[in-house]
Structures
1.
Amino acid sequence: MDWHALSTNQIIKSLNTNEKSGLSSSHAKTVLSINGENKLIQANHKSLFVRFLSQFTDFMVIILLIASGISFTAALWEESGDFIDPIIILLIVIVNAIIGVVQESRAQHAIDALKKLFAPSACVIRDSKLQDIPTENIVPGDIICLSAGDYVPADARLIECNALKTQESALTGESLPCKKNSEIVLPSKCPLAERKNMLFSSTIVLSGNAKAVVTQTGMETQVGKIANLLNSEEAPQTPLQKRLAKVGKVLGIGAVLICCVIFLMGLLRNVPLLDSFMLSVSLAVAAIPEGLPAIVTVVLSIGVQRMAKSNAIVRLLPAVETLGAATVICSDKTGTLTQNIMTVTHLCSPEGDIEHHSDSAQNLLSLASLCSNSTVTKSKLKHKAIGEPTENAIVLSAQSSGIDVNKQKKEYMRVAEIPFDSQRKLMTTVNKFPSGLKQITKGAPDVIISRCDKFLLGGNTVAITSSNRMALLEQNNCMAKEGLRVIAVAFKDITRADMATENNLVFCGLIGMSDPPRPEAEGAVKICKQAGIIPVMITGDHIITANTIAKKLGILNNNSLSLTGHDLDEMSEQELSKKVKDCRVFARVTPEHKVRIVKAFQKNGDVVAMTGDGVNDAPALKVADIGCAMGKSGTDVAKGAADMILTDDNFATIVKAVEQGRGIYDNIKKAVHFLLSSNIGEILVVFIASLMSLDSPLLPIHLLWVNLVTDSLPAIALGFEKIDNEIMKRKPLSANVGFFSNGLGFDICVEGCLIGAVTLLAFIIGTNMFISENSIMLGRTMAFATLSISELIHAQNMRSRHSIFSIGLFSNKRMVFACIICSLMQVLVIAFEPLARIFKVTTLDFSQWLCVIGLSLVPLIVLETEKYIRHRKTI
C-alpha cells in the first residue's frame, strides 16, 4: 500500500488504531501473531559443512582429486614412499574449498549487518500509556514517539512533527538530511527519497521530535525489502572462475586421453604392464598443472597486497581479476565522484555575480552566518564547521572571506529565532546590532523573493518591481541549472523582537553551493574511456544536480542519456537493456532500480563494477560482478555485501584498482601460459619417443620433480611482474574470451614443441654421442637437466610481450632468485650421489653440462627473435 499517498486519518482508520491511546496490549498481541516479529528474517542457508562439501563438485577439483589418487597409487606401486605429490594436491583442493565457502558467506555478513541497524527498544503509546517496548514487538498500528538521536524502529506515517530531520542517505542515497512534513499527502508514485511524510526503519532522527503510526514492520519495511534482495540475489561467477573451469575441462579430458594412448602404445611395444601404466599415469599427472590453483591464489594475493597500498582492500581474491575485466563502472556521486563537502561557489547580489572578498559579499555572508546554527572550530591551522552541511558551507565561506564568525555571533548576539520549517522553507533570527535590532531571514529563493518589497542596490535600499522580481528569479534559475543548491538572504530593521515577521523584507542576495567534483575524478574518467570502460553515475540526488556533475567530469555528453527512477519504472526489462547502452546517469533511484541497472548491463555482456556506501546499495553490490564499498562513509551492510572496500571513498582509486586487476590477470595468464607450455613439452618428449620406439627419455619421478618443483617458483615469480605501462590503453577483455584466445593456444603448442624437441635431442645426444657405461641413464640425465633448465629459461620469455632485454633481465628480482634456487636444486639432484640414486641419474661432465645449457637456450633465442620481428612490423 502507498501509505505516503494517504492522510493520517485514513491510515489510523485502516490500521484500527487510535492516535492518542494507541493499540491495546491484547490487540497488539493478536497483530503480532499474524504479522510476525519486527525483525529481519534470513533465508535458509546450507550448513557450513554442506557448503564446504559442495566446493568439491567443480570439474577442475574432481580432476585434481583424480590426479591425487593416481599419484598416491603410483607411490604405493613403486614403494617409494613419496606421498608429497598427493598431499600437496589435497592441500590445494582444501584451500580452494575454504575460499569458496568464504565467498558464499558474504550474504550472511550483509544480513547480520542489517540486523544491527535495528534499535533494541522504542517508545510506543500502548493502552493510553507511553511505554518502552522491544523493537521486535512493534506492530502495524502502533503509535511511536521519536526525538533526536533515536533510530526509527519501523516504517511509519507521520502524525505530527516539530522541526524533524532524519538521516536517510544509507537507504535513499540522498546526501542531505531529510526534512519531514506530517501535513502533506504525496502522489502514489513519489520516489522514496521524496516521501517527506514517512519515516523508514533503521534511519536516524537528527533533530526535532515526532509522533507517527507504524505502517510496516520486519521484512515488509524498505530495509526488509533490501534484505529480501540480498537473500534472493546470487553473486555471479567471476571471469577467472569461468576461464579456469574451461581450462580444467580441457586438461582433464586431455589427461585421460594421454593416459590411455601412452598405456596402449607401451603394450604394443611390449613394455612391461606395470612400467607402461606408471609412465602413462605420470604423464597424466604432468598434463594437469596441479599447482595452478595455488599459483593463481598466490598471484591474486600479491595483487591484494599491492591494491591495499593504493587504498583498495580486497575481501575476496577473485575480485582482483574481475575488476581488471570490468567494462562498466557504476559509481555513486556523493563522496565518490564528489568531495561530499558542501562549498559556497557563487555569490550573487541583485546587480549580478560578486567576488567573495567584496563589500557586498562580506555583507551577504555576514548576515547568512548570523542566521545559521553551525559553529566554527580551529584544528591544526584549519577551520572546521559543526552543524548542518548547508550552514557549514555558509559559515566556512564567511570565515575564509575574513569574517570571524564566532566573534561576530558574540558581537551581534541573537535575541530571538524562528526555526526553519519545511512548510515555510525559511529560517529567521533577530540579532542585536549597534544601530538596533535586525531581523535576518534565509531560505528558498522563490519564497524570500515573494516576501521582499525592497532590495539592496549599491548599498541603498530600493523598492522592488515585478521586473526586478523576474530578474532575481532568473538569477536563481541560472544557478540551479548549474546544479547549485541556492539559498536567498534578506533582512529588515525592527524595534522589538516580537515584531519579527517574514514579510516586507529587503532582498540582499543569493548564495550558491555545490558538492564539488574530486580534482582527480575527471582524469580518472578520461582513463576509463581510454581503457574502453564506461563510467556511469547512479545516485539518489536530483537529476539536474547529477547531470551537472556528470557533465563536468565528462561522464555525460550530448550523445548520452540520463534517466530517473520514475523513467525506469515505466520500462520493461527489454527496453532497459536497450536504453542502458546509451545511458550514463541514473538519478532518484531505489535499491530495486540499482539491481535492475546492473542486470541490464550484464545482460548486454558487460562486466559490471558497482560502488556504493549505503544500505540501499547492498543488493546491487552483491549482484554486480565486482562490488566496491566505501571505507569511510560505507555502512557495515554495504561492506558485507561487497568484494572490495575503498578506504578513501575515491573514484580514482577504483580506476587504479582496475589497472592493478588487469596487471594481475596478465600475470596469471603468463603463469598459465608458462605451466601449460612446459607441461606440453614434457608430454611430447615421452609421446614422440614412444612413436619412434625409443626408450622413455624421462622417468615418472623426473616428471613429478619438474612439475612440482621446477615449475612452481618461476610461476609464482611471474605474479610479481610490473604492470605494462600501456595496459590502460587496451580495451577490456571480454568475459567470454578464454585463456587460449588471440593465438595463445598456438603459442603454447609451439613453445611446448620447442621444449619437447630440445629435451628429446638432449636424450638422443646423451645416448649416442657420449661414451658411457649406461648410455640410457646418461641420456635421461641430460634430458632431465635440459627439460628443467629450458623451462627456467622459458619463464624469462613469459615475463613480457617485449624483449626480455628491453624490460631488464634483472628487473624482477624474485624471478632471478627463483631461477637460481631451482637451478641449484636441479644440479644438486644430479651431482649429490644419494639424490642421484633416488632419481636414477648420473653425474655430468663439463662438456655435457655445456650441451645441456646450449640446448636449454634454444627456446629463448627463438622467442626473442620472434619478438624482434613482431616489434619491427609494428614500427
Note: The longest strand covers residues 155-167.
2.
Amino acid sequence: VRRISRYNGIQPTIGLGIIKQRGTNAVAIGDAVKKKMGQLGDFLPKGMQMGIVMDTTKFIRDSVNELGTTLLMAVLLTSIVCYLFLGTWSSAFNVILAIPVSLIGSFIVLHFLGFTVNTFVLMGLSLSIGIVVDDAIMVLENITRHNELGKSRVHAALVGAREITGAAVASSLAILAIFVPVVFMQGIIGKFLYQFGMTLSVAVLISLLEALTLAPMRCSQFLQLGGGNFVTKAVSRFMDYLASVYKRALISCLNWRWSVIAVAFLIFGSSLFTSRAMRKEFLPPQDQSRFLLTIYTKMGSSLAFTDKVFHEAEKLYKSRPEIDSYYVAVGGFGGGLVNQGISFITMKEPKVRPVAAPFVKKAPTQQEFMAYFRKELAKIPGVDRAVLLDLSQGGFSAGRSYPIEFVVQGPDWKKLADYSLELKKNILASGYMADVDSDFNPNMPETEIIPDRPAAAAHGINIATIAHSIASMVGGLKLLPNKYTDESGHRDDIQIKLKPEENQVAADLSRIYVRNVYGQIVPLTSVVTVKEASTLLTITRYNRERGISLFGNFTAGKSQSEVINYIKKTAKEMLPEGYHITMSGSSAAFDESSNSLVGAVVLGIFVAFMVLASQFNSFIHPIVILLALPFSVTGALWALKITDISLNLYSAIGILLLMGIVKKNSILLVEFTNHKRSEGMNVKEALIDACPVRLRPIIMTSIATICGAIPSALASGSGSEVMRPMAVTVIGGVLVSTFLTLFVVPCAYSLFSRLESHKHQDELDKALSALGEGGASHAHKEAPKDR
C-alpha cells in the first residue's frame, strides 16, 4: 500500500479526477459526468457507492448566473435613468431599444468568433450596458432639442442626427482604439482580455450603427414631447438649473484658466501617491468554498505514521460545522510520498455557512477560515508543516496555483540548497509570507549497502546474488510465470518479500541469507557493509538549469506586489554571482500582466490620439480631449482606496475601459464648440454657449454608465470578487473625470486654440471653391480674434 484515500473520514475511497479537453465546455462536461455516474451507480456491488468530492463547475455555473442577474439589473437601472432624464416613455423607449439590439447583435457576432459564455464575456456585456446607450442618448437628445426649437419630427431627426454624427463616431472609435492593442497582448492573459475587448468593441460598434440609423428613424415616427410626471419634470427643472449654475461657473473658470488646470493636475498628482499605499496583486481572492490542504510529517516517516496524523486532522475537519465534506489522500496523488498527504476541503456555501466559535459575529469567509485552520493544524502532534492553497489564486498560470512562486537557480546543487534554505528562513522571519513550501526535500533516510568483495569471494558468493537477494526480500519479487488461483477462479501474481514488520530498519537485513556456489546458506551481513545516510527525495530543474522552487501565500495585510518586490530585493542582496531567482507561476503572470497592461494603455492612448487627429483634422484637439484621461485614473484610485479593493488584473481592466469611456465627454464638448465656432462665434463665446447645451447628454451618459456598473459593484454572490474591482473603478473614474472634464477641457481648449494652424484648411477651402463645391465656413475665417 502506497496511498490511503478516505472520504469524510470513514469510507476507504478511490479518487478519480475528470479534466476537460482543450476547447470544450466545462459545465457541459460536468453535467455529462454526473449523468454517467447516475447510470454507473446501478452496476456497483452492494455496499459501494459513487459520489462527488469536489465540483468546480458549480462555482462556474453560480458565477455565470450571478453575472446574468447583474446584467439584467444593469439593464433595468439604465432604463430608469433614461426615462427620468428624457421625460417620456416614447423617448426612453427609443434609447432603451439600443440595449437589446446591441446585446443580441453581440451574441450573434461572438458566436461566430467562437467565444463561450464566460466571465470575461459577461463582464464585458454587463459593463457595456451603460455605454451602448450613450450614442442613442446623444442622438435622441440632439433630435429632441431641435424638435423643441420648432422643427418637425422628420426635420429634427435629419438635422439632429447629422449634427451629432461626428461626435458619436469619434467617441465610439475612441473606445475601440483603446482595445486595439489588447488584441496583440501575449500569453494567457491576452487571450482572456482579447475576449473582453472584442465583446465591448462589438457591442459599441452595433450600438453606434443602431444610433445613427434606427434611432433617427424611430424618432421621426414616434418621438413625443411634453407629458411626463412630476418626477421627470423635476429632473428636467433640476437639469436646467444645473446648466445655469454650470454656465456661471464656467465663465469664472475661463477667467482663471491656468489656475483651473494647475489645480486639476495637482489633484491628479496627489492621487498617484494614493496608489503607493494600495495593495497590489494579480487576482483578488474569491470565496469558492473549497481549498486544498497539504500536511507534511517529518522526512522518513512511514505511511502508517502519516495516516495516524491524518486521522487526527480529520477529527478537526469533522468538528467544524463550516465544512461540508472532505477527501484525503495520504501518500500524495501518485502514492509513494509517504510523509505527506493532501486534503480536499469543501465548505458550505456562504449563504448557509453557520457561525461557530471563534467566529461570533458572522460566518467566516473562506480566507478567514483558512487562516484559523492554519493555526489549528499546527497544534496536531506529528505535523511538521501544513500548507493551504486557495484555488482562486491560481488564476491563469500553469504553476502550483500559489500567489507567490519563484525558483532559486545556480550551478552548484549543495550551494543552491543552502541559499534556498537561507532565503526561506529569511522570508519566514520577515512576516511577509505564510505556508512557505519548497520542492527541496533533504534528509530522506537512505541505507547504503556496500558489498565486501574479499569476504564475498571467500564465501563463494558473487555480487549479482547479493543484489538479487536484497531486491527480492526488501523490494519484492514476482514469481513469474507462476500464479495463484483462488476459490472463485481468479488468478493472482505470487510475490515474495519480507513481512512488513520485519522490513522496517537496517537491522532487519540480518534476517536475509544468501546461497553460495556450493549450495550453503550464508548471512547477508557477513558479506556486506551497511551504512545509514540521508539523501534528496527529488532533484529538480527549471528551464534546463538546476533550481529549487519556493512557493506559498502572502500574509494578511500584505500585497502580492509588496512580497514579490521584497523577495527580489532580498535575493539580490543574498545571492552571489551565478545564482539568481526566477519568478514562476502566478508571480510570473503578475509581472507579465502588469507590463502588458501598461504597454496596452500607452499604445491605446497613442492609437486613440491618431484616430481623434484624423477625426478632427487637428493635432491640438486630441490633446485637449485626452486631458480627461488622468482624471479618470484619479477617480479610479480614490474609489478603490475608499472601498479597500486592491489594484489587480480586474481593476486594471477597469482603468483600461475608462480610457475609452471618459473621452466621450471631452469629444462632445470639443465637437460642439467647433460647430459653434463655425457659425461665427469666437472661442470664449462658443465655449460658454456650447458647453451648457452639452451638459445634459454628458450628465445623462455618465449616470447611465455608472448605473450600468452599480449592480456589479454591489454584487455579493459567486464570482463577485472579480466583478467589483472593475465596476468600482468605472464608477469612481467616471464620477471624478466627468466633473473635472466639464471645467478643465474648456479651459485647455481656450488656451490651445491659439496654437491652431489654418493653412491647410484655407487651401482646402480654395480648392473646393475652385471645384464649385463651396468652401466650408470655419471659425478662423469668420470669428474675431480670441484674446
Note: Residues 774-787 have pLDDT under 50 and may be disordered.
